[in-house]
Design brief:
The protein is mainly beta. It has three domains: about 5-125, Elongation Factor Tu (Ef-tu), domain 3 (Beta Barrel); about 130-205 and about 360-445; about 215-355, Jelly Rolls (Sandwich). It contains three helices and 33 strands. It has helices spanning about 50-70, 105-110, 255-260; strands at about 5-10, 10-15, 20-25, 40-50, 80-85, 90-105, 115-125, 130, 135, 140, 145, 150-155, 165-170, 180-190, 195-205, 215, 225, 235-240, 245-255, 265-275, 280-290, 290-295, 310-320, 330-340, 345-355, 360-365, 375-380, 385-390, 400-405, 405-410, 415-420, 435-440, 445. A hairpin with a 2-residue loop joins strand 21 (about 280-290) and strand 22 (about 290-295). The chain is elongated, with a radius of gyration of 27 Å. The chain starts with a strand and ends with a strand.
């Protein structure tokens, strides 16, 4: 069996083992330095032409591949280097950044025989992705190892049949490689009312089995419980915030079990408000032990120009010490508010989502939104995000992305959490659903 080494770009395959090219002394992939942004490889080839013009065309083909790579190193038209130690057809690929061709000292003599001996130098990404994309089986209360699209809700309150799960599980055995592999996330909007505008995704491979990621507003020991069927668990918590001083509005107990699952990692506290979103209020979150504040955020206000019912308010470590430790002590978390309008303001909290940041992604439409039966596609390998008609046609690049596309960590069970917002101001329906498929390319540091 022979080695595979070739470049593919713009529909062109440049095989260094065929069509007048011959790899002289093999190819030996480098192991990149830690945190390297790229790695350089070199190998020697013999180029044979049927004539002088054919020889010139063959050598220029390599330079054209590198020119294409420089122009498209950050988009879906990238040039890729493919390699495998045999011809089994399972080559691995790495995105080319740039390259160079250097001729040996016998160029003039070899040219007369319609051949060239050259050293090819290629700078590429410091990892190799499997050539073939793999679909990942997905699991939550609405299905096990689903490949046809798993239903995900816009809240998580333990409803049954269908289960109100806003997360998907991925088994450890289903993620291969030795580096996190980029995904292609397919999200079908199957909700009939309003258009899907925004999708938030958080990732947890720290302790997905034990983290309780939803804190209901009504579990606060301060404020007043209210009932409304449009809320998670049919309830929300209300606090009448007077003008002037900073007041403690809501108080939640963070158990030792909860904090043990958090393990001192970073989390976003995302809040779904009920009804009017209070943009005149300065919010603060505090962690308290024995009536003493041991950590607090700065005061934050919400952008009044953005009509989001779900707000990303705080980022913090939970707990703020002892990274990775267990057997932790329980804490209390409070949310304070301060406003100076001169009148009382009702602050209505439906739920908090404690969103893990092992991975984080936010995608929002620059305009219009995603109709029912259209899809959101977040392609991390090719670094593009777009919507289509659900069948791969009528693509529109109207998505704006924040954070990085989700990458699956090999050998670990992991969970992805989702929240959604419609295109209508302050409308994030808890009954809103999507159907999720996930694909990835296993990734290795070297081969």
């Amino acid at each position: 069996m022979s080695m595979q080494l070739y470049i593919i770009y713009a529909g062109i395959t440049l095989d260094f083992q065929a069509n007048g090219y011959k790899l002289k002394d093999g190819f030996f992939p480098e192991t990149p330095d830690e945190d390297a942004e790229s790695v350089s490889e070199q190998f020697d080839i013999l180029i044979n032409g049927s004539s002088g013009s054919d020889l010139r065309s063959k050598k220029e083909a390599i330079r054209l591949a590198f020119q294409h790579a420089k122009l498209h190193k950050d988009d879906a038209q990238a040039a890729w280097l493919y390699f495998d130690v045999d011809d089994s057809g399972d080559a691995w690929m790495s995105k080319i950044i740039q390259g160079q061709v250097i001729y040996d000292r016998n160029l003039d003599r070899n040219w007369r025989q319609n051949k060239i001996v050259a050293t090819v130098i290629i700078e590429h990404k410091p990892f190799w992705d499997a050539m073939d994309e793999v679909q990942v089986p997905l699991t939550n209360g609405n299905g096990t190892d689903v490949l046809t699209g798993l239903t995900v809700y816009n809240h998580d309150d333990g409803g049954v049949s269908p289960y109100h799960d806003n997360w998907i599980d991925i088994k450890a055995a289903d993620v291969l490689g030795d580096k996190p592999g980029r995904t292609r996330l397919e999200v079908l909007n199957n909700y009939a009312t309003n258009r899907l505008n925004t999708l938030w995704t958080g990732q947890n491979f720290t302790d997905p089995d034990n983290l309780t990621h939803i804190i209901e507003g009504e579990s606060s020991t301060t404020g007043t419980e209210q009932n409304d069927s449009s809320c998670s668990n049919g309830k929300y918590r209300q606090y009448a915030l007077a003008s002037g001083s900073e007041y403690t509005m809501f108080t939640w107990s963070l158990s030792d079990t909860f904090l043990n699952a958090c393990k001192g990692q970073y989390y976003k506290i995302m809040v779904r408000f009920f009804s009017t979103v209070p943009t005149d209020v300065k919010f603060r979150i505090k962690l308290i032990y024995a009536a003493t504040t041991i950590w607090q955020s700065g005061q934050v206000t919400m952008d009044a120009t953005r009509g989001y019912q779900i707000r990303d308010l705080f980022t913090l470590r939970l707990p703020p010490w002892l990274l990775g430790a267990t057997d932790l002590n329980a804490l209390t978390m409070t949310m304070t508010g301060q406003q100076s309008t001169g009148s009382s303001i009702n602050v209505n909290v439906d739920f908090l989502q404690v969103t893990p940041l092992d991975g984080w992604r936010m995608l929002e439409c620059a305009g219009y939104g995603i109709e029912q039966n259209e899809r959101l596609i977040d392609d991390g390998l090719n670094e593009v995000a777009y919507i289509d008609d659900g069948a791969g046609d009528n693509k529109l690049g109207i998505l704006v992305g924040y954070g990085n596309p989700i990458a699956l960590y090999p050998g670990k069970k992991q969970r992805l959490y989702f929240l959604m917002h419609s295109n209508i101001s302050n409308t994030a329906e808890i009954a809103r659903t999507i159907s999720v498929k996930l694909f990835y390319h296993p990734r290795r540091e070297t081969i």
